[in-house]
Specification:
Layout: H1 2-19, E1 32-34, E2 39-44, E3 50-55, E4 58-63, E5 69-74, E6 80-88, E7 92-108, H2 110-113, H3 122-127, E8 134-138, E9 156-158, H4 169-182, E10 186-192, H5 204-207, H6 221-242, E11 250-251, E12 268-270, E13 274-275, E14 284-296, E15 305-309, E16 312-313, E17 315-320, E18 323-329, E19 335-339, E20 347-357, E21 363-364, E22 372-375, E23 378-384, E24 390-399, H7 410-416, E25 426-430, H8 439-456, E26 464-467, H9 485-495, E27 502-505, H10 522-535, E28 548-554, E29 557-562, E30 568-570, E31 580-583, E32 589-591, E33 593-597, E34 600-604, E35 613-616, E36 626-628, E37 637-638
Parallel strand pairs: 1-7, 7-10, 7-25, 8-10, 25-26, 26-27
Antiparallel strand pairs: 2-5, 3-4, 3-6, 6-7, 8-9, 11-24, 12-24, 13-21, 14-20, 14-24, 15-19, 15-22, 16-21, 17-18, 17-20, 22-23, 28-29, 29-34, 30-36, 31-32, 31-35, 33-34, 35-37
Signal peptide: 1-19
Organism: Chryseolinea lacunae
Protein name: Sialate O-acetylesterase
Amino acid sequence: MKKLILFSVAMLCTIAVSAHVRMPGIFTDHAVLQRNAPIKIWGWADKGERVTVYLNGFKKAVVTDQTGRWLVVIPEMVAGGPYELVVQGKNTIRFTDILIGEVWLCSGQSNMQFVVQNTASAKTEIAKANWPTIRHFKVKEKIAASPSDDVAGGSWTVCSPETVPSFTAVGYFFAKALNHELNVPVGIVNASWGGTYIEAWMSHSTLIKNPDYRDVSALTDHQLSSWFASVEALYADYGKKLGIESFTNYKTNDSLWHRGDCADLNWISIPFPGDFDKTVLPRFDGTVWFRGRFRLADHTSPKGWTLHLGKVEDYGDIFINGKRIGGASNNTNASDLVIDASVLTPGENVIAIKINDYWETGGFTSHAQAYYLEGSEGVSSRIELSGLPWKMNFASAKTWIRTPNVQPNVLFNGMVNPVIPYTVKGVLWYQGENNAEYAFQYRQLLPALIADWRARFDQPEMPFYFVQLPNYLKYQQNSKNGGAQWAEIRESMQKTLAVPNTGMAVTIDLGDSTDVHPRNKEDVGKRLSLIALNHLYGKKYVSAGPEVKSVSFENGRTLITFREGARLIARDRYGYLRGFEVAGKDKIFFNAAAVIKGNVVVVESPLVVSPEAVRYSWSNNPDGNLYNEAGLPASPFRSDDWVLTTEERKFDRWINNMYPVEYKLSK
């Protein structure tokens, strides 16, 4: 009888739990709902359960479908509040302090994730940030192989000096501008994750329509979790063999590892060459040593030997028998290091290579034939490095295993899909740093993401505004010096403006050559707000810098005509224009002088008699200074359609492609 009573109580508890109306995590106290548009409210309950929604005098009841899901569409409401949102089924849920206003989804990687407290204006901005009608919802980071129906966590937060430090800075400064200009509440939904590729933010069905991605596997959540676990097990095996307790910020003394007599018996045997991620070190950053042994026959002369290394990423120091013979980096495709005769010895010799890997790909990434020793006697004195026994050990290590960068789609599934179909006004997007290496593909991916998100939110004309990447890295990375990946991805972004209802904030003057996270986010947010205020809210602001209308070549000069708008200016104390270069049919670019004549910029160089192409600010970190009177810079551009450095590069970072399904410890 006692067992029967306990069973009955358990059944009643189960029934009570299953009967509860449940709401997605995007709905909390202090939420902002979109004004002047149908508002979608949804959730779950028992199959066939009647659910009633109340908001600002509106009431509507629905019955859940076969899966227990329900959806209520509330007619348009004007800005206002605070209101109470009540959802009633077999239980009742109440949300208080609900406002009706403008809602924007902010997404992308670290520069969107970048918070107010780290900005250049943080001290003064935080102190005065008492704006209770600005609200922020941070979607909790979540990786999911299949689409999730709810966020992993988060809550709507009212803006105050105590809360604003953790707001997305770009989103906050955008929201502040709208809030003050329109005098309506503004909510920002922040779904961002630093260091991520655009592929992670795209749905699987959209991505595989692109021929470059048709082989992306659709994993289950169990398969993805198992992959993470297998990689963690691999490092556990490494640690067991090498006596390393943890790879979290691991560091040890490697001062003797370059020596020929260094004891390496217990080091890990590995294949050579190979990209770390593909072979032995998935998701690794740090310093790792490789040691190999080769023999010179007694009759072989130690003179005239050269070490040939293919690409080494990121940076390497090379030693033979304890003596450093040179270095290599990912900017050097082939290192031909002449070995002094005093370094080599008859019999066994030891080559030690110390590699510092700071980001993503690391190791020896050229084909095996690119790594060899060659004597003066030519082929007969060639030693293939791939044929040697190699061993590996860690000097320092940090692993990034549970990351979204091992499989596309996982952030769309885990952080965007759960927010759909929350009614938003539009999207702010700041991403692309990770995709600069694959810049040419980006001109297809960003428009595809825009179309997909619009379809899923059921808003085919949803505004989508993005940030063009700012100046970064070295000025010398330009047309004349091997190309500039950041210039190429800026062009891919600029071409996305062909998609209707898009806008681009040019930030070519707001970057930092040494920091991928520039601290001036206030002007980034303001420039995005100018686009929205001008295009959506009827404010007559200039929202774009000078825009090229046409380019022509006449009598050795290049004439660039700009669209009518605010007057062109050179932001320079002496009035000189910088950043222009021209090339003839040989495709060799030279810096050129440029002058403003009305809405035309005239460019010429004595080194290019018959120009066929002109480029402006075509560098990772350019010095162009063409603005309009409104203080907005011109976007980098080029007139030619010559082949770019990233046209042949294809993103390949997914499980069962670049990342093997299983890694095994070499014995």
